[in-house]
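Project standup — Tuesday

K.O.: blocked on the structure for the chain from last sprint. Re-posting the sequence here as requested.
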Amino acid sequence: MQKSLARVALLIAILTMMLPAAPAAAQPLPQDVITVGTVTGSAGSTVDVPVSIRDTSGTPLGMDQPPGSKIQSYSIKVNYAPASAVQSITFTRAGITTSLTPTFESSPSGPGTISLLDTFQESTNPIPFTLNAALPGNQVAHLLITLSPTTTPGALTLTLDPTLTQLTDQAGSGATKETVAAGNLLLVSGVVNVTAFVPALSTWALILLAAALAIIAIRMRL
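H.V.: unblocked you, prediction finished:
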């Protein structure tokens, strides 16, 4: 009986060794990151929303890659809602791209959406990213948004379009491209937290208010 059990155990051990090893769990791809900031502003005011890119090591494009494979072009599309909360909006370069001269630049817009497309020549205008900088990375642009004075307090969402937002090399044609679909680009959308409209006081109104407060203070001393 013991010999039979031993033979069964040996057979099980041999069969176990013959089984193929379980495949190792797939490691997530490194991702560069595009982030739209979150800010607070009152209805009727203008808010400055930073837009940043984090250059992460190990992605197809970046400071750790050879010449010709740097992040030198980006297409960033932001959809905002509700569109009625926005009186005017612009999308322009800022931060580390402010002093650079693009070979191509465009900022198309439509109802509830605005984009920024920039391409820079690597040899003459390299974008000086800091590799693996703390999130959100380096600021490359900003949205200047004038909020409607009549908008209701709440959230104005600033959502990055996952299809048209991408990073490329200086060719700007997608020869080397990072996208959400490819798994090597992460998008972080933003929000403008809108508070109630606070009307600004004119200079004379401020003078009258100060005078009234002074009179009240004098009477309280009497």
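K.O.: great, moving the ticket to review. The chain has one domain: 30-196. Residues 30-196 form a domain with the Immunoglobulin-like fold (CATH 2.60.40.680).
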